[in-house]
Backbone:
């Protein structure tokens, strides 16, 4: 009621072309920390989860890396404001004790991240080349930020925003920090290299002429779809 009253009062002073934008307030999760090391009261903290997903072979979204940062609940940590750390250790530090609960959150995070990328790819596929920014313009790498929130005593992952450069920097830093302390190499460099090499190969064959001797049967129809997507000019020769 107080929000509606404030908006109504604000609208009375706006011109015809002005408006009021309301955004949902997402409360961060507050969990009891097991076995506190200090008797001093602990300030409420917020967990920001940064994910990086790339376009894999067959236009399939694939999660590359996850990095977390913690900050004060009233001002959640932003990119570059704190050193990143792993998801499992961050959840433990945040108070998620049960391994099964941490694994369930990790699974839900992967599903939500890849679903966000899939939705973006589907939206781009419906756009004309001009609206996408060019014939070969499309998204290969996407970052999605989440906040660990609590809704009705249940932990929920709330998507905050999508970006590319910020999440890439944070996840690359987390990968480098892990290598520096002896952690085994992750999949981030390989997955990013695959995405870039696939785009480079498409660029090399774009506009080339290919002569096909015998078009094959219906089962080979995917060849024509791939040729169209790669920008190839196909010439068919038959007897």
Residues:
């Amino acid at each position: 009621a107080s929000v509606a009253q404030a908006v109504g009062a604000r609208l009375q002073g706006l011109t015809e072309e002005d408006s009021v934008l309301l955004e949902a307030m997402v409360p961060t999760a507050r969990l009891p920390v097991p076995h506190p090391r200090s008797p001093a009261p602990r300030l409420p903290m917020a967990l920001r989860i940064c994910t990086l997903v790339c376009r894999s072979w067959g236009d399939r979204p694939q999660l590359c890396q996850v990095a977390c940062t913690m900050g004060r609940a009233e001002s959640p940590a932003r990119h570059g404001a704190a050193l990143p750390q792993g998801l499992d250790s961050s959840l433990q530090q945040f108070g998620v004790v049960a391994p099964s609960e941490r694994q369930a959150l990790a699974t839900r995070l992967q599903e939500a991240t890849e679903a966000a990328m899939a939705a973006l790819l589907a939206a781009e596929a419906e756009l004309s080349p001009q609206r996408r920014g060019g014939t070969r313009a499309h998204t290969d790498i996407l970052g999605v930020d989440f906040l660990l929130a609590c809704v009705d005593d249940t932990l929920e992952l709330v998507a905050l925003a999508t970006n590319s450069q910020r999440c890439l920097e944070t996840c690359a830093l987390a990968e480098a920090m892990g290598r520096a302390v002896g952690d085994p190499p992750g999949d981030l460099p390989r997955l990013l290299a695959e995405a870039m090499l696939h785009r480079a190969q498409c660029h090399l064959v774009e506009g080339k002429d290919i002569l096909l001797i015998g078009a094959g049967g219906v089962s080979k129809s995917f060849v024509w779809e791939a040729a169209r997507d790669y920008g190839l000019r196909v010439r068919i020769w038959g007897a």
In short: The chain has a mean pLDDT of 81. Helices lie at 2-11, 87-94, 99-125, 129-132, 165-180, 188-205, 222-230. The chain has seven helices and six strands. The radius of gyration is 24 Å.
